[in-house]
Known about the structure:
Strand content: 35-45%
Number of strands: 11
Helix content: 10-25%
CATH architecture: Alpha-Beta Barrel
Largest sheet: 11 strands, antiparallel
Radius of gyration: 18 Å
CATH topology: mRNA Triphosphatase Cet1, Chain A
CATH class: Alpha Beta
Number of domains: 1
Amino acid sequence: MAGHPVFDRRETRSFAREIKFLITAEMGLQIQEWARSNLERDPSGVGECGDQYATTSLYYETPGFDVFHQKESYGRAKYRIRRYGLDNYIFLERKFRTDRLLAKRRTSVPLEGLQRLGELQADPTWEGYWFHRRILTRGLKPLVQVSYDRTARCGSAPTGPIRLTIDTNLRVLPLPDRAFLPGLGLPLIESQCILELKYVQDIPAIFKMVVERYAISPGRVSKYRLGLGALDYSPSLRPDASHA
């Protein structure tokens, strides 16, 4: 589709950190107010405060749920497609993480490019070739859609950029057909939301202030895992499930 932004970014960061907190919706509103007074708005944000947007992510998985089970390299690399609001373009994303390194690759393609990802051969002339080739090689297919509303605020610290996000109205849909239905699906963690703090190396003083002020503790929170848990995939998620 003509007019979509051409976007192909590779980012590698050493000692990048992301910590998450599952908090009440009431506390989320309090932290949102604090963040708007102490951090800058997200450059891509909209709304009255210029820091909000709707996000829909389509997550890829193998028939044996190797990503969920973090089997070998599937535990380090995740593939997804992301759409913001009702934009007519999408982002093909790969996120690779180790203890010391975070590497991301992100490419924008027209929304209609979803259909190309269903083809059995990848086209080297297409901007999404790298993503298509890798999901074919790794046996990945779309499984679920997770959508949510995000508030994002940014800033800087001595070690690098920092970012605070609050995700609300989380919903999940079983969606193996490479489509997007923003805002629809089974509600997740009602009356709760997800707070995420992103920084480099050491947690900055301003984020320590948030943790101490609201007496919150980090935990392992995965939207993908929450979504699978809410759907009828339980037999396949057992540790002894077949990977055939």
